[in-house]
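Collaboration report, partner site 2.

Our partner group contributed sequences for two proteins of shared interest, and the home lab folded both. The records are reproduced in the order in which they were received, starting with the first partner submission.
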Amino acid sequence: MLAPPLLDALIDRILDEDLAGGDLTTEACVDPSAEASGEAVARKPLVVCGGAVFRRVFERLDPAARFESLVADGALVEVGVVLWRVRGRAQALLSGERTALNLAQRMSGVATLTRRYVEALPSGSTTRIADTRKTTPGMRALERYAVRVGGAHNHRDSLGSAVMIKDNHITAAGGITRAIERARARAPHTSRIEVEVASLVELEEALSARADIIMLDNFTLADVHAAVARVRALAGARPLLEVSGGITLPRIAELATAGIDVISCGALTHSAPAADIALDLSL
């Protein structure tokens, strides 16, 4: 998750979307000295995620706010479970409600969907489920934390954190072999070279160029099996095989059973529905 100063900066930017012009309704209706309590309640089953972020929203508006976490991140809860409690100035709770819920609902939604993908792996499987960079702008660190809470793994965090040669890099470099050679000449010795391939022919070129990780992009199941067999037949060290593109929940078991090392799935973040969490206030 984000370091506290970065998290505060993110929360402040989001709060500003609502509060740059003040909160006319709350300021008109609620006494500034009034205190209230709020309970965050699960309205549907979900994997809990984002308690610390939920808490920090209210602390940014009321540094004296008191927070109680009743359920830890990563727990699966049923309808009606109280996740967190907060008490502080009523105006702060009302003004921060939407931001706190938006963030917690988003993070819990990602964690909940991720858990479904992880649980779809066959028992004993060593295949990793990983996210991608298809994240909400500005929210990557929080969504990637939610992926980990859901039980999956993170792919590269940013363009500067790994060498990953995709189709347009291949075009711009003049081919798979040329792209890998240039990457190996420039990348730090600590970096592995990953390359995306779109066919079994391209797989052969990536193997010849000694890629460390090969991503099979939009492969059919038959071609996935062929690729796994080809790589397993290699003598000595073999590259990791990753699949991506069109990854849906029903495909997880068959891809893992085929022998794939990593399944990267953009849906974990770009298609996760918000979890249903409500904030019930009382005096």
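Second partner submission, folded after the first:
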Amino acid sequence: MLMTALVAAVSVPFTNAAAYTARIRDARYVRLTEWARWQGLEARRLKRDETLQLARSGMRLQFTADSREASINGLQLWLLLPLATRNGDLYISQLDIDSTFRPLLSPPRNERGKKVRVICLDAGHGGKDPGNRAAGRHEKDYTLRLTLELRDQLRKAGFKVVLTRSGDSYPELSDRPAIARRTGADLFVSLHFNATENGRADARGSEVYAMTPVGAASTNARGEGANASAFPGNRSDERNMLLAYQIQKALIRQLGTEDRGVRRARFEVLREATMPAALIEAGFLSHPTEGKKIFTTEYRRSMAKSIVDGIQAYKQIVER
């Protein structure tokens, strides 16, 4: 579990901000080594002018120059804005300090007495929308099978579960988070599988999406650009990130699948969710090995257990 005693940079008193902040790409950036110092992290260059590692007991963050790729304790995160280099120093955006790292280093807490009890599960696609196809099989069938297994495991763990679909139907995208709202869900989790036509032997692994914060570009395949407008899903930005991280961490650690990272997107089901939400791409149907595993009940059972563990980790953190 991440250490939670760290404090976001914005809350640390300082003087002479111009010495370590800069306006880059029309965004506010902070010198990475200075932010590390505020957090009590020791900085070490792994490659000259390319990779910087920040570490302290039980904590390791890694950054790459001019990249959106980063990691925390070995788990990949996609930054909202690329790291920047200026005069030989690496700079991180204030947006990432606030929206990517603060939810993980200083997690949000629920109001006293507010528990995570009701989970809304959304089996992606369905009915007229088959989703991805691979080996003659449809994504919609396997998202539903995973959802039903996950429902059963969540119920055994003491949660109440609501489904956006329980058969081969197609609820409109806007109806799915609406169902979560009407039923008083505390979390919304949408389940999907990836597939690709090119590089089938290479593309594999899981990735989990949280809603893209205002002012940032998404990291999904369509890569929506920066958006200045807020959506209902942005009300839960900190909790969205924490939930996505805990689920991805559990999937990677327990399944041993390739880590494709915690990513951002403005998918409609995430945009319209008024409670913390995550969208899981649990694996690639098109990969010759991973796809065969996904088609088995045993592997989906293990996958569901990982997601339950991620949800329970999130619950334990926010209810403290």
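Feedback sent to the partner group on the second submission included the following. Confidence is low (pLDDT under 50) at residues 1-16. The longest strand covers residues 187-194.
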